[in-house]
Amino acid sequence: MENVIVITGGSRGIGAATALLAARQGYRICINYHADDQAAEAILSQFRALGAEAIAVRADVSVEDEIIQLFLRVDDELGPITALVNNAGTIGQQSRVENMSEFRLLNVMKTNVVGPMLCAKHALLRMARRHGGQGGAIVNVSSVAARLGSPNEYVDYAASKGALDTFTIGLAKEVAGEGVRVNGVRPGYIHTGFHALSGDPDRVSKLEPGLPMGRGGYPEEVAEAILWLLSDKASYATGSFIDLGGGR
Fold first, then answer.
1. pTM over 0.90
2. Which of 160, 126, 127 is nearest to 145 (CA)?
3. CB 64 within 8 A of CB 10
4. Residue-level pLDDT at 1
5. Which domain holds residue 44?
6. Engineering a disulfide at 17: which of 124, 128, 176, 223 sits with its beta carbon 3.0 to 4.6 angstroms away?
């Protein structure tokens, strides 16, 4: 059976690194992206250079109608999904809780919690044995922030990742008997463009001296853990987490 992977937020950062590693391992790939057509096209050309079969699908994964369309395209163009990486996420500007708006909080929760739950739902309708599927694996991209709480920065983001971790544990137990494994990775400070969203693009470099390993991480290091969890090498792992925080 061909391995078919859907990676949300796959046009840059950890998502793109995961997609490129999957391409090298022979997966057929769907990268989902929210808005940046140019970034999606750029990574598709890298897949073509590797000879990998890949599509890029624009969709807001916090909106179920758009998720449904995303998965229908995967069905039509790549075949039955075997792997899902819930990587899409958002973060607000650094702020204390008393300055956070309702709009901000709903946006963070919708993208970081509701979105992955809906994507898992539509993947399970295809992968789980009770729905006639052949099994599969899901990896949720959380954050070290789920353990640390991110005070004075983005408690809302940390709370959303805590919710994602709890969802990972519960879903893993729910579908363990149906051929689907569900695990999480918790990256720490990783060199990606994500930090620009919180208003501090140089954040990782500035904080490196205080990290136990003395450096930030790289998207490729996170991708290796994600692909391992998706692979048969992790066949007895479900409801578990790999922390990739350099000792944080």
1. yes
2. 160
3. no
4. 67
5. 4-244
6. 223
Average pLDDT in the 99-115 region? 98
> What is the per-residue pLDDT across 148-172, written as a single tens digit (0 to 9) for each?
999 999 999 999 999 999 999 999 9
Name the burial class of residue 227, with classes exposed (0-12), middle (13-18) and buried (19+) by CB atoms within 10 angstroms of its CB: buried
Measured CA to CA, the distance from residue 175 to residue 183 in angstroms comes to 12
Three-state secondary-structure class, residue 22:
helix
Residue ranges of E strands in the chain: 4-7, 28-33, 54-58, 83-86, 136-141, 180-187, 241-244
Asked whether 175 and 182 are in contact (CB, 8 A), the reply is yes
Q: How many domains does the chain fold into?
A: 1
User: Is 218 in the active site?
Assistant: no
Predicted local distance difference test score (pLDDT) of residue 239: 98
How far, in Å, are 102, 137, 182, 210, 222 from residue 187 at the CA level? 27, 19, 17, 16, 7
CATH number for the domain including 130?
3.40.50.720
The residue from 27, 33, 154, 157 that is catalytic is: 157
